[in-house]
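Checklist before submission:
- one chain only
- standard amino acids only
- sequence pasted in full

Submission:
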Amino acid sequence: MSKLSTLTKGIIKENPVLVSILGICPALAVSTQASNAIGMGLATTFVLLGSNVSLSLLRNVIPDKVRIPCYIIIIAGFVTLVKMALEAYAYPVYLSLGIFLPLIVCNCVVFARAEVFAKRNTALDSAIDAVGTGAGFTLALLAIASVREIFGSGTWFGMELPVLAENNISIFTMAPGGFVVFGILIAVVNKTSRGRIIKRKEFGCESCPSAGICGKGGAQ
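Returned file contents:
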C-alpha cells in the first residue's frame, strides 16, 4: 500500500465514523457545536499519532498475550498529556469536552488502529495512518456538528446565522437529532459511493481488534 493510499483511506474509504462506525459515543455527544468537534478531533488525532508510533516501535517487544493492557497504558499516557495541555492552554475546550476527553483511552478508533495497523507496520506508516484516520474522524465530527449547530442553534462556530438564529430546530441539539444527522450522513456516503466503499470482507473477524481475544481471527 502506498503512503498516499495509507493517508487517504482513513479519510474516505475507511472513515472511522461514517464507514467503520467506530467512536460513535463521543461523535454524537460532543457534536452539538463545531468548535467541540474540532477539539475532540484534534485531541484524538494526537493520541492516535502518539500511540500508533509508540506501539509500532514496540511491536516486537510487547508480548502478544499482554498487548491489550500495554495498549491501554500507552494510550492513557498520551490522553493524559493532551488532557493536561487542554486544561492549561485551552480551558474552555477542556470544559466543553468533559468526560469524553479522558474516555479517549477506550475509544474504539484508537484501539482499532493499534491492533489492525500499528502492530503490523513501520513507525512511519503508522504515523501516516494515524494522521489519515484522525483527519477522517475530525471531518466526520465536523460534518455532524455543523449540521446540528446550524439547524439546532442557528450558529456556526458560535457566529449567529441570519434567519436560522431566530428559527432554529432545537431537536438537533438533542440526542435524537444527533442520531438523525448521523444516519443521514451514512446514507449520503453509501449513496455517493453506490455502496462500494464498504466491502463485505471488511466486516470479517480478521479486521476486528478483539479477534485475538476470542480466537476467531486466527491469532494465537
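Reviewer check: The chain has a mean pLDDT of 85.
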